[in-house]
Specification:
By secondary structure, the protein is α+β, with helices and mostly antiparallel strands. 55% of the residues lie in helices and 14% in strands. Helix 1 packs antiparallel against helix 2 and helix 1 runs parallel beside helix 3. The longest helix has 14 residues.
């Protein structure tokens, strides 16, 4: 499956794996790539809408996570 923003690269492995750290890393990368604020807000709302697995799944659905 191709992520919503495939040009936004986010390193997940070897980094702090807490849910807030993952979302912050994704948000910084997306902001730097010019993703609109509304989209960033939607990403955060969806990511935090459930458990840790949802955070990871949402990050992978939206961005090119490594």
């Amino acid at each position: 499956m191709t992520p919503k923003y495939p040009k936004v690269k986010v390193q997940l492995t070897g980094e702090d794996g807490s849910a807030p750290a993952i979302v912050a890393r994704c948000r910084r990368a997306a902001h730097a790539a010019g993703v609109p604020r509304k989209e960033l807000d939607d990403f955060m709302r969806i990511a935090f809408s459930s458990d840790y697995n949802n955070v990871v799944a949402t990050a992978m659905a939206w961005f090119d996570c490594r």
